[in-house]
Amino acid sequence: MTQIKQKSVSSVCPRIMNQRRKSTVVQIGNTPLGGDNPIRIQSMTNTSTMDTEASVQQCIRIIEAGSEYVRLTAQGVREAENLKNIEEQLHALGYTTPLIADIHFNPKAAEAAAQTVEKVRINPGNFGDPVKDFIPFLNLCKANHTAIRIGVNHGSLSDRIMTQYGDTPRGMVESCMEFLRVCMAENFTNVVLSIKASNTYVMVQTVRLLVDEMNKEGMAFPLHLGVTEAGDGEDGRIKSAVGIGTLLREGIGDTIRVSLSEDPEAEIPVARLLVDYATRQLAVTSYQLPVSGCRLPVEVREMPYDDVPDTSFIMVANPAMQSSARVLCATYHEPDLNAFRIKAAIDCGVFFLDNLVDGIRLTNTAPNITPQEVESVAFGILQATGRRITKTEYISCPSCGRTLFDLQTAIKRVKAATSHLVGLKIAIMGCIVNGPGEMADADYGYVGAGAGKVSLYKGKECILKNIPEADAVDELLKLIEKNF
Ligand code: SF4
User: Fold this and answer.
1) Ligand 1 atom 2: residue of nearest CA
2) Each residue's pLDDT tens digit, 380-393
3) Residues with beta carbon inside 6 Å of ligand 1?
């Protein structure tokens, strides 16, 4: 006879439903972040920042969708200076949403942007020296009341950090902490932090580690959450909800950006639902919810492997290794497919990321959702957490002002040609400047190299440079076949 032990969710996963982390408040224009302020939602343009009219129009679409900040890339001083024209036009049209400049390599562009927009994001991995370049920048930010984000990405750490720590969670945290210590020494506190990765496990573990390290050093800076290069469609939504939702459920996170390879305004309803669903219990209890008394639509059942009753239970572990299985059972009545994907990924993701269960049984009783759609979401959660790989893994950036080709079309073409290659990780990235670093552990990379030009990578090695876009998918297939 089947022996099923029901376990309380809080006993299996005590991190869930903790209180919201208390962070400091950062003033970003008219929209403060952190502390008791709502968790803010933001997105980023993918127009050329030199194209004022197109950037203004896209900012408006993003703002009207509900974004509370808008980020624009500023790869050089010219782009940073043009942010002023964009902001002036937005103000003239009545839009006062704070703008954020995204800087990677150029301290001079950061200095120009600090005098123009409300916040500047720098990547410490390639920004420059934490003292020589950073302190003059902080002084400018102080003088202009400009906030900053120290934004570390997996795959773009400095050579110095890489030599000491490798491309590891510890290295990512140290990359952030050394710039933070300079901020503290300079008495500059208008700082937001982010540590992002396209791998949800790396992203969640690294942000948890960063919070621990900040606690040790008496820091409580607010956190920006995101899963980089999450992709598009179902996979992009599930991956983002697993990474961001897991941390929000633990009370971590003050602003989020869902990075989808879609139009930027499409990110906003996903982000809104994600924040509302992940935090609704935290919000109603004013950060005091106890770990027991959980009202999630999930339960964990432990049962002998031989008694796992039917194929709707999808397993991840090898039955030979254990006598019993811990199965996460989650039931919804959610007629909206996208909402179902996001809610299930938030509720279930942490159990697989933290290796707390061996299988999933997902149910949706809404009549318009088919069993195939439910199964696809269940397999999507297992893929997004790295616990069971059943399809090709795509890592694709959301594109930005550095992208010089139609990324969405490229993604469709690459997917159509490679979706049968189960288990391969293929990156489709908008630019050669950040793409190769940030495609992390992809097996192959299809990277924009200029207008109509693509470079192809095997791992980190560039194999074919600047080939015409029209030939790039065929060349990618040839490259994969040659190495199979
Ligand atoms: S990889 Fe390049 S194009 Fe894509 S989002 Fe990053 S900087 Fe922009």
Assistant:
1) 431
2) 999 999 999 999 99
3) 397-400, 402-403, 429-431, 433-435, 438
